[in-house]
């Protein structure tokens, strides 16, 4: 990993609808908390469905390029700004997808089928950012146009091909099943963290929230309902009343102060 933490806490955060505003993709409201983490040398590891190409830009803007990131919903880990990734896993997903019955496959429109403009239209991203979103190596996000019953059947057909399906706040994402939680465990081991805080807003963040020592569900009225999590019963996981970066900022500031997380002497 490129960074060497002096804090024993590591913060893992989803992006869209969590640290980034659902509509504007802005993280400006979370700047005070991000700056506090930086001042105390607390690693901020971004964990998102975004690609390595997208993530490197956001990390650079936030000043956290020296920390690793979980890309494409945890299917891959990056620890530098390099985006020259092996795409063989992505190609294998697309190949196996062709084995799914055509009537089900027609209900799913993945990024590989979209142009940069279509991705931009469906995400609100600029054309440049949409192009980076299509530079995939580990997973295939897309839009679902069928019923819930058809979606269940689609998931079963994908499982027969060894492909996992996850619903996020905006897209359905296909991969070979590596999760944010699994990636988080690898990074925790490499960074030597003894305390972890995870923040997310959608069902594809559930395992990461449950795996962390502490979790925060960021309010997102646009996301599918979060499944029941064990930590909600014990108080290990809490919910914000405010959404997006405003809720994220408040939650992180309160957590760091409550546990008096500082740089190691």
Automatic annotation (TrEMBL):
Domain of life, source organism: Bacteria
Pfam families in UniProt: Hydrolase_3
NCBIfam families: HAD-SF-IIB, HAD-SF-IIB-MPGP
Organism of derivation: Thalassococcus halodurans
Record flagged with keyword GTP-binding: no
A GO cellular-component term linked to this record: cytosol
GO MF annotations, alphabetized: magnesium ion binding; mannosyl-3-phosphoglycerate phosphatase activity
GO biological process terms, semicolon-separated: mannosylglycerate biosynthetic process
Record bears the keyword Transport: no
Name of the protein described by the UniProt record: Mannosyl-3-phosphoglycerate phosphatase
Keywords: Hydrolase, Magnesium, Metal-binding
């Amino acid at each position: 990993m490129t960074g060497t933490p002096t804090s024993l806490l590591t913060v893992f955060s989803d992006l869209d609808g969590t640290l980034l505003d659902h509509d504007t993709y802005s993280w400006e409201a979370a700047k005070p908390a991000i700056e506090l983490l930086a001042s105390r040398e607390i690693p901020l590891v971004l964990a998102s469905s975004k690609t390595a190409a997208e993530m490197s830009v956001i990390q650079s803007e936030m000043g956290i390029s020296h920390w690793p990131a979980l890309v494409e919903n945890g299917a891959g880990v990056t620890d530098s700004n390099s985006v020259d990734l092996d795409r063989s896993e992505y190609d294998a997903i697309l190949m196996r997808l062709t084995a799914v019955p055509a009537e089900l496959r027609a209900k799913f429109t993945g990024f590989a089928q979209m142009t940069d403009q279509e991705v931009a239209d469906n995400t609100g991203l600029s054309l440049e950012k949409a192009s980076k979103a299509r530079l995939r190596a580990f997973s295939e996000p897309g839009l679902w146009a069928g019923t819930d019953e058809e979606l269940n059947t689609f998931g079963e057909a994908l499982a027969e091909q060894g492909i996992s399906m996850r619903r996020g706040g905006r897209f359905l994402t296909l991969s070979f099943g590596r999760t944010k939680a699994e990636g988080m465990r690898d990074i925790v081991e490499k960074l030597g963290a003894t305390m972890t805080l995870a923040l997310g807003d959608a069902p594809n963040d559930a395992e990461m929230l449950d795996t962390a020592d502490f979790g925060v569900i960021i309010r997102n009225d646009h996301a599918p309902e979060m499944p029941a999590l064990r930590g909600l019963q014990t108080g290990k996981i809490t919910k914000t009343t405010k959404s997006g970066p405003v809720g994220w900022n408040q939650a992180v500031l309160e957590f760091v102060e409550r546990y008096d997380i500082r740089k190691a002497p």
